[in-house]
Amino acid sequence: MTIWTPRLADKGPRYRALAEAIEAAIADGELAAGTRLPPQRRLADALSVTVGTVTRAYALVEQKGLVEARVGSGTYVREAASEASPFVPSAGSSLEEDTIDLALSLPPPSPRRQAALASALGAIAGDGAALDRAVNYPLGGAPAPHRNIYARWLARLGLPVEADELLIDQGGMNGISLALGALLSPGERLAAEALSYPGLISAARERDLRTVALPFDDDGIDVETLAARFDRQPFRALYLMPDHHNPTTARLCESRREALVALARQRDFWLIEDGVMLLPQEERGTPLYRLAPERTLFLFSVAKILGGGLRAGVMRAPPALHERLAAVQRHQVWAPPALTALAVDHWLASGAADELLDWQFEELAARESIVREQLGDFDIRLRRGGFYVWLTLPGEMRAAPLIEHLARRGVRVTPGEAFCVGSTAAPQAIRLCFSAAGSREQLAHALEIVREALSRPAPALWQTL
């Protein structure tokens, strides 16, 4: 039987030529959504290349989100919708005024943020030296006072760091980009939990990195399994969220933290520790950067506290990496905006950030009670001080038709598929960010709609793929 057989370019590695041919065929419509790619051995024979060449090409286009591997079935061209970045709202979502968006991980709305920002901008406007810094090119990295203010604030949060360990960046996503740019070259392997932050998945694809999906449970990554996987597929760095895994809310237990650090030293790989989602101190474990300071990059952002629009954060990194990280930052953005840095300085130094965080934890506790009241009869996971709940669907219910149904009822949530690393099978689960609702009343209304949908007898709709 005739199979799809592309004509490969004569220059460059054969696997890249095949990957480019697949990408072009998908773009041209020659390989339509849902099409199964040829079995690897048959295509290798047809092209007179090794099976390994085809395997590498398939992995490359999968990392770009163009195809998906299904265990025991083959590799298929993805639907166009699945290529979209899962953490960006759809274009139509803002047009529906009555839509309650529980898809994005946003802090609870509060006029406190606008008032604190107005105060910070007023203070800057009255300070000539600050205005001069705000409009001139930043030279020589972040000023020492800025790093000192961050260091003192992080210490109050239970995250002690030295000021000279810090690199000021533009938030969590920028921190991920800087870390990947400094640590990995295209084609190298990056490991992460099998379900992980969609921004990390997108950043890995953009840099042409090969991802290694790691199994995990309620106590985080199984380090023995991790060691075996490393021996088969050595990777350069491991990205993880030890305190509050996105999306399942799992926390890496203390014994596994110690075992992970020991393994990282033994096998010599880097740890990228994402601490952007800040929980109350008693809900957190020992930071990995405290256990292995020489090989851990710790990412932090003010987005989940002060507001995502500020695009401000900080990375704690070993001094040996600072020059390389700074070079990547200069290449990408030159330097974070000085005006944003000055505003954040004012919030942190004045105590306004601490007051806002105290209020936020109280508000989240009230919202958590609403979640448990509405969805407590279902399989849910959430953490005190967190923004979201991970809900495993009951029975034979499927995520895709449920999400479509909820969207028609005016509620947006995120499917488990959005968090899948590599060829990880999509779990029949959804993530709901209860922090994002405009009010507690709006949240209760949205969760009533979700509960009603989950409680329905399983119609044929729920089983459709």
From TrEMBL:
Source species, domain of life: Bacteria
GO molecular function (one): transaminase activity
SUPFAM superfamilies found in the cross-reference section: PLP-dependent transferases, Winged helix' DNA-binding domain
Keyword set includes Transmembrane: no
Residues in HTH gntR-type domain copies: 12-80
Keyword vocabulary terms for this entry: Aminotransferase, DNA-binding, Pyridoxal phosphate, Transcription, Transcription regulation, Transferase
UniProt similarity note: In the C-terminal section; belongs to the class-I pyridoxal-phosphate-dependent aminotransferase family.
UniProt protein name: PLP-dependent aminotransferase family protein
Organism: Kushneria aurantia
Lineage start: Bacteria, Pseudomonadati, Pseudomonadota, Gammaproteobacteria, Oceanospirillales
